[in-house]
Design brief:
163 residues; mainly alpha; Ferritin
Amino acid sequence: MKISKKMEDTNNRQMNEELFSEYLYLSMSAYFEAQNLKGFAHWMRKQADEEREHAMRFYNYLFDRDGTAVFEAMKKPDAKWASPLAAFQAAYKHEQYITDRIHKLHDLAMREGDKATMSMLKWFIDEQVEEEASALEIVQKLKAIGKSVNGLMYLNKALAKRE
């Protein structure tokens, strides 16, 4: 069954949000590269890769439902943060924003009676729990580390192992 115009538009908006997420995390990666925190930069590049995969899930879903993917202009992401903690707090806040958008999209699908979109979004609802928890865990570690250079370097090394 063809996706409704309203659901097509909202799925396209979310696809573009996921692409912006990729862009934001690449900007964060560049920030960490400039700070010579290669492990943090690696973690953010991997996160950017995940966000592109999320965007592609919406892209493919739109075509599976006889819709069209529409790409919008993106705003410029932030490029500097006051500290690694500030960058990860921004990442956590961004994931909360994405979670809220996914929930609202699911609510719309329920109101529209679009069971296929509700089913597709279940994966995203579950994924967002992991996305938020992952960013929050690093925020909490950075808070515990405080101003310890040794702690920061240890975490940097640990983040470099993300696959």
